[in-house]
Write a structure and sequence with these properties.
Largest sheet: 2 strands, antiparallel
Distance between the termini: 36 Å
Number of helices: 6
Order of helices and strands: HHHHEEHH
Number of strands: 2
Radius of gyration: 19 Å
Length: 161
């Protein structure tokens, strides 16, 4: 089954899903954020077909989340390193993992993130960059941003008109 493309949708979530929306891609990025860099390491850890892994890595390189860097000359072998764009996904993955730990891991978290500075298991949280208040969905209001194009289908019914 072919998936729908969101490339024409003026929505940052939809555009992110154009890159991240395939099953293996988030798992590849998860492993890269944990320090995995080589094709064979990804393939062994994930058990993904080699051709699928190659396609996903190529896509991540093409979209600027990873770069392919040679680490051996004969034969030429590459490792896949996260770019600043790719590394910036860490908070997203941390929050997704925490959500999964809370709601989908009845036996407890399979992995914990320990803060090196204090030695405690950390729980990432969203805060307002201006007042440092914790953010909750009910404490926010959406409005059109600078990328809004008049005539776009409103993503939020209250913003129609």
């Amino acid at each position: 089954m072919r998936r729908t493309s969101f490339s024409d949708m003026n929505c940052s979530v939809a555009q992110s899903l154009e890159i991240m929306g395939e099953w293996w891609t988030p798992l590849i990025l998860r492993d890269a954020l944990m320090g995995i860099t080589r094709f064979e390491q990804f393939q062994t850890r994930l058990g993904v077909a080699r051709n699928v892994l190659a396609q996903r890595l190529d896509s991540l390189v093409e979209h600027g989340l990873m770069e392919r860097v040679p680490y051996q000359e004969r034969p030429v072998r590459h490792e896949y390193l996260l770019t600043p764009m790719g590394r910036e996904l860490w908070p997203t993955f941390q929050m997704l993992r925490q959500w999964g730990d809370k709601w989908l891991a009845p036996g407890g978290a399979p992995v914990e993130t320990v803060h090196d500075a204090c030695g405690h298991v950390l729980q990432a949280r969203l805060e307002c960059t201006h007042c440092d208040e914790p953010l909750r969905g009910r404490d926010q209001t959406l409005r059109h941003g600078p990328g809004w194009v008049v005539g776009d289908t409103p993503l939020v019914p209250e913003l129609a008109g």
